[in-house]
Amino acid sequence: MSQPVFFAVETGGTKIVWRIVDAAGVVLDEGRFATGRPEAAVEALVAAAAERPVAGLGVASFGPLVVDPSSPQRGLMLATPKPGWTGFNLSRTLADRLGAPFAVDTDVNAAAVAEARLGAGRGARAVAYVTVGTGIGGGLCVDGQTLKGALHPEIGHLFVRRVEGDVQASACPFHADCVEGLAAGPAVQARLAGRRLEDADEVRAVVADYLGQLVAGLVFAWAPDRIVFGGGVMSTPGLIIEVEAAARRRVNGYGSAVVMGEGGYLVAAEREHAGLDGAMLMAQDLAA
User: Fold this and answer.
1) Looking at residue 82, which CATH number applies to its domain?
2) pTM above 0.85?
3) Percent residues over pLDDT 70 in the chain
4) Strands (E) located in the chain
5) pLDDT tens-place string over residues 36-93
6) Helix/strand/coil (H, E, C) string of 45-101?
7) Are 60 and 200 members of one domain?
8) For the chain, what is the domain count?
9) Which of 121, 123, 145, 134 is nearest to 62 (CA)?
């Protein structure tokens, strides 16, 4: 009889990645495929399991979805523009097909867990993870547990005060002044008009200001010991330092500034596949 395995899945807007490990954490199989209809995704993932007994399934998902562990709708996808996904519960459907217990969280919350336990957040009690790419998302891990309310954090849609003279149209179809609409990848590309961010000081200053406002808000609302940044925009050399400087200006010495220490409060993500790593930790925790 085959030995039990742990199955991790991360669903994204364009691709789904998965990994299977044995009880010792040795990778047995992994893969990826394009995100299509959810029913097709379930069939592909069941095939990937190859009839191996699954001791724990962890799913890190794009949202919005129900993540409350006590809810009978845990894992249910809410309104999303992805065709066929609204009202579908991939986690529960896949778990039922595999006969396995499951844990589900947002991709950014899962990434926060991975960075807190395995990456740039090690040694800190409260770790926030922020990704700045096509969109902006964030999660919080405190003592190994992620922040969940009636839903989950949507920090990319927090409002920021516009930099004086900035008339760039928001890239967000819902909000004219949210940080995602003004500083995520599509907004940055529109500002750059074909240039590189590292070569456009005036654009980088605006982006750093908006992200600094976001960080200041997280300091006031969550007071994390450390904030880990990931995503393509944050790979720009020097940007993370400029964002921290902007955040310190916004906090302006208020008492909450004590959590930021003297420097290096913002750190770059260490895990290349933090969301998938977090999903695997969630799966393994089911057997703990």
Assistant:
1) 3.30.420.40
2) yes
3) 100
4) 5-11, 15-21, 27-34, 54-61, 102-106, 126-132, 136-142, 145-146, 226-230, 266-268
5) 999 999 999 999 999 999 999 999 999 999 999 999 999 999 999 889 999 999 999 9
6) HHHHHCCCCEEEEEEEECCCECCCCCCCCCCCECCCCCCCCCCCCHHHHHHHHHCCC
7) no
8) 2
9) 134
